[in-house]
Amino acid sequence: MQVKSTFLVVVSNVLFGIVLARGGMLGDETDGELPPLKLKGVERVPEEGVITYANLKEGTDIECKLKGGAGDESKNGKETVKDLEWKWVRLEIDEDHEEEEIPLNGQVKSKLDAKAVKDAVGWLTGWIRLKCSSGDNFAEFRVDAGNKTKAPKLPFRVKAFDKSLIVVEKEDFTVFCEIVNRTRLVEGETIEQGIKRLKNELNVKWYRWSEAEDHSYAPPPTDEPAKHNCTEEAMEGSKWIEMKTSQLKQGDIDPHIKMINNTDDEGKNWGFKLEDALYDDRRAYKCVVYNKTQPQNCSESVFFLRVKDKYAALWPFIGIVAEVVVLCIVIFVCEHGKNSKEEFEDEGQNGNGVGIGGQGSGPGENSNVRRRT
Question: Same structural domain for residues 181 and 302?
């Protein structure tokens, strides 16, 4: 009798939990703690928006469809309208605890195939959120990337540089590598303190592309997300050369390349300075941050440094001034020639319209003679 009552209690608790999960009170069909997935004007496949780790390994497509039956294509009479473009992003929380969207480049269809889903998850672990959107309509998905924790295995990432940075020739250039903290702050801890705590577990290296004016460091654009190659094994045999403070040349006060470190941070080189930038410095640079105990857990960001001619703005100005001067000369010559021609014609006529030497000037030569009757 006691066993029967215990069995009934367990069954009732399970049923109650299922009801809560169906109603969204347990977040979704994940770990019972995450907030419900958002949805507006879109029908998603799978309907609940959750992809388990087993589904991820087997390979599962996810898809968004506008409510009302509108898919990627729609027909207008006999014509087929151009495919509807969708935007796919991965949702993350930045250091300010605000939601940040990481675009999935090349994904513009309503369906994300199994390979694209795996590429979007990449090296992350835990529950990963993906989002599709078309106009004001959107849907969120949650993918189990391999464990039951909400935080990703990699607790940081390098803040992305602009694709290219600019410095004027013979001027100094300084840059620092910044990281984004993906971990929860300790109670009472500021964002700066959280970053400092995280940096104690990390190390940083800078790399320089071996050839100037060479853009082969960037792989050709494809529909697939770019793969990270920040491990030391990936660097071996490549054109990436680790940066160090250059030797001081005779007559120089500072070295051309100077790594910038902080004595409060175990002397790690979080930045570098180029003294009197040269045209040869026009190349790619990369910052790699990795975990000291697990170097394979790394993040990177690359930029191309463009070195502009010191007088680059002067040459267009000189060209414009030269064009104005030439135009003025042409106008002056034309006006002077026109005036000279008019003076020459006037010298061939007297004030009464009678030619020089008493000769008539034409049919009207007797126009001033009065007829007497």
Answer: yes
Angle at 123 between CA 130 and CA 295, to 5 degrees: 145
One domain for residues 112 and 180:
no
Which structural domain range is residue 64 located in?
Answer: 21-144
d(CA 173, CA 156): 26
**CB atoms < 10 A from the CB of 347, how many?**
8
User: By the 8 A CB rule, do 144 and 111 touch?
Assistant: no
Separation CA 114–CA 222 (nearest Å)? 17
| Confidence (pTM) | 0.49
Residues 135 and 186 in one domain: no
Residues of 45-75 as b/e, b for ≥16 C-beta within 10 angstroms?
Answer: eeeebbbeeebbeeebebbbbbeeeeebeee
Give the end-to-end CA distance of the chain in Å, rounded to a whole number: 158
Cα(130)–Cα(123) distance, integer angstroms = 15
Convert the pLDDT of each residue in 245-275 to its tens digit.
988 877 778 899 999 987 566 778 899 999 9
**Residue-wise pLDDT tens digits, 171-180:** 999 999 998 8
Number of domain units in the chain: 2
Domain assignment present for 331: no
The count of other CB atoms within 10 Å of the CB of residue 170 is 13
Q: Domain with 219 in it: what CATH number?
A: 2.60.40.10
Element at 333 (helix H, strand E)? helix 314-347
